[in-house]
Design a protein that fits this description.
Elements (H helix, E strand, L loop, with lengths): L13 H4 E7 L2 E6 L10 E5 L4 E4 L8 H7 L8 E4 L5 H4 L8 E4 H8 L37 E3 L4 E3 L4 E6 L8 E5 L4 E5 L16 H16 L5 E4 L5 E2 H14 L2 H28 L1
Length: 283
């Protein structure tokens, strides 16, 4: 369990909203303090010799780049943010960055600010302290972003002293990716795998894809290509836990699981379609 100390506010207030901790030299974990702990996404900062990389961006209620600059975590080097997928808790802050990368399968959803595909569903009770006076969750939307880079399987993100390989891992969503630092055997897994129940019942989730993805991850572990997992939620874990999580999912997908997931997917799809039908029909 990672303890989150009291915040030290910086001049623009961003330091109160965000919490950060150095995990390894040049690697930082950032979290949104006032978003419900069970749902908030991890944000990772990887500092490179030539450029820096932010993995996921949180809700976007407070300016993340301003916080990183105020803390001295980014400076004059170029900074790019990569969305492991476009669900709102990971993509809401992308519009604060100049350089944005996302997988090709979800680029259109990002460009159009598609709050159906980003599964945007935020309530006031999930935010324990409003980011601005008078803020209400029912006004929250993921803003449209035109990515500066569209990612495909096998693409390399070069930070100078570190290279990350894009692995397209659909299942949770159609554009889910992992970023693999093969030299250091680190996997940024997004929501593909984290230390909890894997979600395969959202719009554009696909169980067959998820099974193939999990088997692919199991092969990475079997080939000793992953040692540490930096997930999209909760705490990091090792290769043994990664193998157990993915193999357990594959073993669990029987008829009952598929029926349950299909039912939940129908409900989620209907609710989100009703919530955002006007915006979708207007495009």
């Amino acid at each position: 369990m990672i303890a989150e100390p009291d915040a030290e506010p910086v001049g623009d207030g961003t330091g109160e909203w965000f919490w950060h901790q150095q995990v390894l030299p040049g690697l930082y974990l950032i979290r949104e303090r006032y978003f419900e702990a069970a749902k908030r996404a991890n944000i990772w900062l990887l500092q490179g010799s030539q450029r820096d990389l932010v993995v996921d961006s949180g809700l976007g209620l407070v300016n993340l780049p301003s916080f990183l600059r105020a803390r001295g975590l980014i400076g004059s080097k170029p900074v790019m943010v990569v969305a492991t997928h476009v669900h709102f808790d990971h993509s809401g802050g992308l519009h604060h960055f100049d350089r944005v990368a996302v997988h090709r399968a979800e680029a259109s959803a990002l460009v159009h600010g598609d709050n159906y595909e980003t599964v945007t569903w935020l309530s006031d009770v999930e935010i324990s302290k409003a980011p601005q006076p008078g803020w209400k969750a029912n006004t929250y939307r993921v803003k449209p972003v035109h990515p500066s880079r569209v990612l495909d399987e096998g693409d390399i993100i070069n930070l100078g002293n570190r290279q990350l390989t894009v692995l397209h891992m659909p299942g949770h969503s159609r554009g889910c990716i992992c970023l693999h630092d093969q030299e250091n055997r680190i996997l940024f897994s997004g929501d593909v795998v984290y230390n909890g129940a894997l979600i395969d019942w959202l719009p554009f989730s696909n169980i067959s894809d998820y099974i193939r993805t999990c088997r692919r991850i199991m092969t990475l572990v079997e080939n000793n290509l992953v040692q540490q997992v930096l997930p999209g939620h909760f705490d990091s874990f090792d290769a043994e836990r990664l193998y157990n999580l993915t193999s357990s999912y594959v073993a669990s997908v029987g008829v009952c699981h598929k029926i349950s997931s299909f039912t939940l997917q129908c409900i989620a799809t209907l609710v989100l379609w009703l919530k955002y039908r006007r915006g979708r029909n207007a495009r």
